[in-house]
Amino acid sequence: MLAGCEDGTDDKPGKRAAGSPPASPSAAPSSAASGKQELPALPGSLTSQDLAWKRCGAPAGGSAPGPDWRCTTVRVPLDYTKPGGATIGIALIRKEARDKGRRLGSMLFDFGGPGGSGVSILPRASGSYTKLNTRYDLVGFDPRGVSGSAGVRCRSDQEQEAAARKVDMTPDTAAEQAAFMKDGADFGAGCERLSGKVLPFVGTTNAARDMDLIREVLGDRKLTYFGISYGTELGGTYAHLFPSRVGRTVLDAVVDPTADTVGHARNQTTGFQRALDNYLKDRGQDPEAGTRRIARLLARIDKKPLPTGTARELNESLALTGIVMPLYSKDNWPYLTQALDEAEGGRGSMLLQLADSYNGRDEKGHYDTESHAQRAISCADSKARPTAAEAKALLPEFEKLSPVFGAFLAWDTAGWCSHWPVKGEHDTPEASAPGAGPILVVGTTGDPATPYEGARKMADELGKGVGIMLTNKGEGHGAYGGNSCVTSTVDTYFLDGKVPADGKTCS
Q1: Residue 88 and residue 46 in contact, taking contact as beta carbons nearer than 8 Å
Q2: Does a cis peptide bond (omega within 30 degrees of 0) precede residue 114?
Q3: Most CB atoms closer than 10 Å: which of 106, 229, 251, 392?
């Protein structure tokens, strides 16, 4: 189940903790808090680091990458206002360019989330980048707060399992609403207890500063960058902070840089319903009738969870997650058909498997921590702290947009950041990058998680002559590797520097 048809990554904006589908992506810095203020110079001990690249070990629950991959750690300031103070390690992984004589430099990747581990994802996704690897070193990293880079942890596996089982993410009663809000508060308290040192510093602005230090340590004059999903927000933030250092950059599956917390939730409600409509049309069904049928199924599951052949039941929140998962790629639509048919027949095994895949739960009941990092980064970024009353006020509008996803995404605006222990950095995004080189912005018309309209807004925000729009008429979250026209256009831009005409369309 993958974003951009590349690998098995959880490249999904707004990934929640176990038991729920996507929430809204966090915003990029506003002009008032963009991080462009004067900061002390970094000491030479950081800018002149001599990296020791070694064979990579196996990530938790996975296998070690092949022998061509090397790993290292780069030290960065915990607080960029105090660059001579405490540091944290940022985990890197690299596969060197195959044609050393024609090497162009390093290409840094971010696969989204926020919370996705580039160290884990890039080796699995690298088959899509074989041509780029001819002349570029492929470099992945874990952004601060993620996995190998001072990774945030907020809950134990047992606590996540209990929340997935007991907390209703579309609460209908006062008791369910109170439990929902308490769960968000408990989650934040757990983050503070287990990861309080790094929580104030895991926002996107600091991650973009880390990227610039990585660029310098790797010896590149400008940053060559490929950002997907939330990685587009990170790329837009970098361009805003360091426009003169922007090299060849591609943003695919683009987060809308003009939307606030509620706006992102509204965008995703629209996007997931659009993808569901397209899925139903592909099956030869009327979208309105098919949507009503799925909404009725979810209502039945809410009243009586489905058996799965294990000790675990499929509740409504997990069912929603299982429905969302295959909408990220048209290749996975057949799995959704099988899962819905099974659920209509009274069994929830397949929807539960899809939900577990999304939630990072393995067969032994161990959860990864991507959802922990996602919430920490999102809440550190956004000042918004919506209340339960404000979420409830959104319900009529959101349920009209999507009878299936609307209630969840309305409630999700209030579920986690409302009691967050760290203040957010900004309100609305800023991605303007006057003076930057051309940035290729790729939007897919059927993208469920980052709807197409956001790509056009990103291109406009970056500025005239900077944001170059490329449209993919198709389905799925991300276009590179899934559409040959988009892939060849991006490859030509990265390898030859040829910028396509603004407004080019691939179908």
Answers
A1: no
A2: yes
A3: 229
10-residue mean pLDDT series, the chain (507 residues)? 33 39 35 61 97 90 89 98 97 98 98 97 97 98 98 98 97 97 97 98 97 98 98 97 98 96 96 98 98 98 98 98 98 98 98 97 96 96 96 98 98 93 85 97 98 98 97 98 98 98 98
Q: Which amino acid is at 307?
A: P
Query: For the CA atoms of 289, 290, 292, 294, what is the dihedral angle to 10 degrees?
Result: 170
Between CA 187 and CA 174 the distance in angstroms is: 20
Bridge partners of 444?
472
For residue 332 the two structure tokens come to 């996975």
The predicted pLDDT at position 58 comes to 86
Q: Which of 120, 195, 229, 317 is catalytic?
A: 229
Q: Structure tokens of 146?
A: 């993620």
**Alpha carbon 321 to chain centroid, angstroms:** 15
Architecture, CATH, for domain 1-507: 3-Layer(aba) Sandwich (3.40)
Angstrom distance (rounded) from CA 100 to CA 141 = 22
| Structural contact between residues 271 and 475, judged by C-beta atoms closer than 8 angstroms | no
Angle at 268 between CA 168 and CA 143, to 5 degrees: 90
Tell me phi and psi for residue 70, to 5 degrees. Answer: -130, 145
366 labelled catalytic: no
Tokens of 392: 């409830």
CA atoms within 13 A on the CB side of 204: 37
The catalytically annotated residue of 10, 168, 210, 447 is 447
Six token digits for residue 234: 């990170």
Rama region for 92: left / alpha / beta (φ>0; ψ in -120 to 50; rest)? beta
Collect all residues with Cβ–Cβ distance below 8 Å to 38 and sequence separation of at least 6.
none
Residue 219 DSSP SS3:
coil
Whether 372 is a known active-site residue: answer: no
Which residues, 6 or more positions from 370, have their beta carbon under 8 angstroms from its beta carbon?
10, 15, 113, 115, 116, 117, 146, 147, 360
Run of H or E including 110: strand 105-110
What is the per-residue pLDDT for 119? 97
SS3 content of the chain, % helix, strand, coil (to 5): 45, 15, 40
Pairing type for strands 69-77 and 54-55 reads antiparallel
pLDDT at 430: 81
DSSP 77-141: ESSTTSTTS-EEEEEEEEE--S-GGG--EEEEEE--TTT--HHHHHHHHGGGGHHHHTTEEEEEE
Q: Is 460 exposed, middle or buried (0-12, 13-18, 19+ CB in 10 A)?
A: middle
